[in-house]
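fyi for ur records
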Amino acid sequence: MVQNKNVEWVGAPGAWAVYLGAIATSWLLLVNFLSAGQAWTAVHLAHTAVTFYGFHWVKGTPGLDESGQYYKETFWEQLDDGVQGTVNRKFLTLVPALLFVIASHTSEYGRSPLVLNTAGVLLTILPKLPFMARVRVFGINKY
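which gave:
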């Protein structure tokens, strides 16, 4: 089987550490200007925006020549050949859930941060659930 270079990095040695390191570094940069709760909420929302766009919106293999093989599939649909429940998928689902818990707790479950964090976790967790595989809600992003 030909490797899909768009998604193979997820299982590479050290990929998870780099991913978590980028999140921690983002928080360290922001905590100098914001409270811990505000910084975690900002990191969580930035993570939501970046991963929703990159994992669940963009289709195909940007910048890679794959002869149109994946042009209708998002990153998430390509990951692990579409097999649900793999270690990579569990890890990439756990990260936004943990960010939600950390951001909500450090912002002391304040109403505004909690609403934002809840919206963020829903936007990142719902598209990852098996029943959402290849689903285009209201036909959005169908083509």
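Helices lie at 15-30, 36-56, 75-78, 87-106, 111-125. thats all i got for now
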